[in-house]
Amino acid sequence: MMSTGALRPVSESADRTPHLSQDVAFEMLSCRRRRYVLHYLKQTDGVADLRELVAQIAAWENGVPTTEVTYEQRTRVYTALRQSHLPKLDDSDIISFDADRGTVVLTDAASELEVYLDVVPHDDIPWSKYYLGLGVLCTGFVVGMWVGLLPFSLIPPLAGTTLVTVLFTASALVHVRHDSRMQLGANGMPPNETGGEDA
């Protein structure tokens, strides 16, 4: 569906309650270019000009400033966005795409995608596995102190409790900082991702 109204978020003009199925959410996020669209829209308060959007995505894909994007690079991205990705995002009510005006607007439904945006870099492990490992390590440490195994029995209980607390607190702080950098819409380039199709 193509929007023909004024340039404003759908939340100001629609009475429906957005709802995305898990299948639709994963399909929309399965493509790198669609993730780039969402990343850019989140950086621009949910509203973008198609030409600027195309230039920025082409720049990200080729690792160059927007001023150095070639005509061929821009055309390749424009064709894919105009003919495929933007209509798909629009049909899913994640954006409102007005082809005539050349405008793209993020909708309320886009906020439902946040739960699926756990971007894990190539050389990282999921945080769930990290915390599981840390929990097993700390449990073994506490059990060793409790049953009196050396060298754990030499550690005062207060020092052991402090160490476990510091480990989990430090991990949580690093996790928060990591998530702020890996989130779609954060300043700068899109997060270092595990991949996904471009076409």
Structure description:
- This protein is 51% helix and 6% strand.
- It is elongated.
- A hairpin with a 4-residue loop joins strand 2 (95-98) and strand 3 (103-106).
- Helix 3 packs across helix 4 (71-91).
- It has two domains: 17-116, Arc Repressor Mutant, subunit A (Orthogonal Bundle); 127-182.
- The model is unreliable at 1-17 and 119-123 (pLDDT under 50).
- The chain has a three-stranded antiparallel sheet with strand order 1-3-2.
- It starts with 21 loop residues before the first helix and ends in a 17-residue tail after the last helix.
- The protein is built from six helices and three strands; from the N terminus they run ααβααββαα.
- The chain is mainly α.
- The chain crosses the membrane at residues 130-149, 155-174.
- This is DUF7344 domain-containing protein.
- Pfam families: DUF7344.
- Residues 26-104 form the DUF7344 domain.
- Keywords: Membrane, Transmembrane, Transmembrane helix.
Any chance you could write out the topology, listing elements then pairs?
Elements: H1 22-29, H2 32-43, E1 47-49, H3 50-62, H4 71-91, E2 95-98, E3 103-106, H5 127-147, H6 157-182
Antiparallel strand pairs: 1-3, 2-3
